[in-house]
Amino acid sequence: MARKLSIMDSGWLMMETRETPMHVGGLALFTIPEDAPADYMESMYRYLVKVDGICRPFSQKIQSHLPLRMDAAWVEDENFDIDYHVRHSALPRPGRVRELLALVSRLHAQRLDPSRPLWECYLIEGIEGNRFALYTKMHHSMVDGMAGMHLMQSRMAKSADEGIPAPWSGEWDANKPKRSPGEKVKASVRQGFSNVSKGTGQLVDLLRQPKDGNVKTIYRAPKTQLNRRVTGARRFAAQSWSLPRIKAAAKKHNGTVNDIFLAMCGGALRRYLLSLDSLPDEALVAQVPVALRSADQASEGGNAITTVQVSLGTHLDTPEARLAAIQDSMKSVKGRLGDMQKAEIDVYTLLTNVPLSLGQITGLSGRVSPMFNLVISNVPGPKETLYLNGAEMQATYPVSLVLHGYALNITVVSYKDSLEFGVIGCRDTLPHIQRFLDYFEESLSELE
To answer: Looking at 85, 139, 140, 150, which residue is catalytic?
Structure first.
């Protein structure tokens, strides 16, 4: 039975072009066990493809007949080809992380085939240090970035000896608890009007805020180098930072891990734009996604996030002043979201995302004033060590997307005692994106 996409999920299909593929991904690094046989990587590939059926959302493709996919719906792919979706490749020697990130940059720039289920997975061997990687990408209409990370991580083992099926195996559908028919309650018409009114009111109140304050909303961002048109070329950079180290900095400044993370981003962006002689006098504004569902709901598919706008204090010279501006901005955001009901947040989210979609579809994005400067995400991840068919996961890096007018994305995911940074940008619009890794370190050091 066909399942129609929501307005937000359909929007990602409508916005997609050759220059702006609308998928999100993840790069996980694994250690090959010391006692692994010579054919270990071949057996790992067999584990990924020799599955008993395919579970949702991996088994579903888009069905559409109208222009812009306005009638898009999910249907089961009756001719599913696992060998197309799961691919085995290798890096040339010496297989440095540098070559791995270059490969992921190229793979992430390629659009998914719209006639098939919108995901692909690459098993990559030949990485120095007796390691291999798994790069997976899924279309944003299929799952949002936070849910995609949770979905993959929730289907990994907690020990090397635990035997669980591959993440897309049909066995996951068989073990999934069924939702009772009465669990979902429809809101009344009166309640619906109330939610629209309150959600609209929240947006109007924010738009009335002084532009030079720390309270931000859409259209409160200066136009920068980040806010130009993009090409289809991508560059991906990734690195891990010690979570205890960041927590110590947070304690020093009476803040949170997220405060320090945003301050690292603010400091890095200031340094980057200064190096290009293009730092604006106004603070950059980050669009920050906030998850609206728990990790165990990720397999339901689709998008369940809202977004808030946060000042990054990039116009301020000192790290203490930038951090204070970020904390003030976040305090306002948390208070406003805390006062809203889920249905009101849904309306607010729709109202703030429609201009983004229209800007991409009409080609105005990157030519007019930006709604914000970039997207920055912080995805909470597992605290325990995870394993894939006996191989220990060393690190997991998020690989997000960029849009016309929004050429840079910074996302982190926590894993055990690390924060794993993933930075992706348009290769042609933003030069030397890899410098952000040095700038993050410098920004953290000055906060320390």
So the answer is: 140
- Per the document, the length of the chain is 448
DSSP 110: S
64 burial level (CB within 10 Å; 0-12, 13-18, 19+): middle
What pLDDT is stored for residue 124 in this prediction?
98
Question: How far from each other are the two terminal CA atoms of the chain, in whole angstroms?
Answer: 56
CA separation (Å) from 327 to 128, 253, 260, 263?
A: 41, 10, 9, 9
Q: Which fold has domain 3-154?
A: Chloramphenicol Acetyltransferase (3.30.559)
With H, G, I as helix, E, B as strand and everything else as coil, classify residue 292. Answer: coil
pTM here is 0.89
Digit-coded pLDDT (tens) for 148-204 = 888 999 999 999 999 999 999 999 987 665 544 444 444 444 444 444 444 455 444
| Distant-in-sequence, close-in-space partners of 309: CB < 8 Å, separation ≥ 6 | 216, 217, 218, 220, 221, 285, 286, 287, 288, 333, 372
Helices (H), 154-216: 171-174, 189-207
Q: Using CA atoms, how far apart are residues 106 and 97, in angstroms rounded to an integer?
A: 14
Q: Is 85 among the catalytic positions?
A: no
Angle at 25 between CA 20 and CA 28, to 5 degrees: 150
The verdict on whether omega for the bond into residue 94 sits within 30 degrees of 0, i.e. cis, is yes
Rounded Cα gap, residues 427 and 431, in angstroms = 6
Name the burial class of residue 301, with classes exposed (0-12), middle (13-18) and buried (19+) by CB atoms within 10 angstroms of its CB. buried
- Reported as a single tens digit per residue, the pLDDT across 367-395 is 999 999 999 999 999 999 999 999 999 99
3-state SS assignment for residue 90: strand
Architecture in CATH for domain 216-384+397-446: 2-Layer Sandwich (3.30)
Domain 3-154 matches domain 216-384+397-446 at the CATH topology level = yes
Domain boundaries, given as residue ranges, for the chain: 3-154, 216-384+397-446
